[in-house]
Amino acid sequence: MFTSMTVINILLSLVFLYFLGKYLLNMYFEGINRPEQWAGKLKQGKITRELQKAQRQYGDKSRFFLFWLQIERIKKEQIQGTFAELGVYKGDSARILHLMEPTRKIHLFDTFEGFIVADLAKEKGEAASYTPTNFSDTSVDEVKRFLGNSDTFVFYKGHFPESAQSLDTEKYAFVNIDVDLYNPTKAGLEYFYPRLSPGGVIIIHDYSYKWEGLVKAVDEFVRGIPENLVLSPDTDGSVLIIKNSVHT
Ligand SMILES: C[S@@+](CC[C@H](N)C(=O)[O-])C[C@H]1O[C@@H](n2cnc3c(N)ncnc32)[C@H](O)[C@@H]1O
User: Fold this and answer.
1) 67, 92, 107, 115: which to mutate for ligand 1, most atoms within 8 A of CB?
2) What is the spatial distance between Cα 67 and Cα 85, in angstroms, rounded to a whole number?
3) pLDDT exceeding 90 applies to what percent of the chain?
4) Residue 123 pLDDT > 80, yes or no?
5) Which CATH number does the domain 59-242 belong to among 1.10.10.10, 3.40.50.150, 3.40.50.2000, 3.40.50.720?
6) Res 26: pLDDT
7) Contact partners, residue 157, CB within 8 Å, separation at least 6
8) CA of 114 relative to ligand 1 center, distance in Å
9) Whose CA is nearest to atom 6 of ligand 1?
């Protein structure tokens, strides 16, 4: 017969084994999944402790390093412009982008109240099961607290693209679009692409069969520009558009 103490001991051991396993797996995958550029910068002491920690904790290492490699390229090539994220939710990816480039302004666009009904109306596939309550458990104040005290973050609360009206002349070097649906993805591409500096990048998250509307918006848009879409092997399938440089 198990006594209650035995049951508690077993449960505690299981919890301990779970965290030990998670830690060891993390150490193992950190070793084999990181690009050589990252390892080199680590050796030179050029990766902050906070960014190293964020890397260890971030589930999708390929997405993490996709961001990092693009941001390193933007810094090296001195691509002009600010950063932007359309689809912020609680600020997880915004925080990582900031840790990777702490000196640039990041414009953050979200309703901070979840999706709006009009954007959901036409969706098929996985997005058809969304309701306005998805991603509604956040707020500007909560994200500000999470991101900490930096004046590089500028918040635009409201429905995109109307929320971007005050920013018409801004130039962008890096844009992360992560909004899951046809309407805001299309609006994001139409808004940011003309304002992207040569050599600047737009990364669109979730380009996969699960998000039919989003894929349609990206495919329609790319037909009208000279650049090709570059597919990334991160878990949810990001795609990149790097604006052609003007050659004379
Ligand atoms: C998948 S979440 C973003 C996750 C975030 N990038 C991260 O990695 O932590 C999608 C977000 O897009 C926002 N969103 C969707 N359509 C929008 C629109 N038209 N205008 C503003 N925000 C929108 C939602 O409110 C939601 O917070």
Assistant:
1) 115
2) 12
3) 81
4) yes
5) 3.40.50.150
6) 64
7) 110, 111, 112, 140, 163
8) 7
9) 88
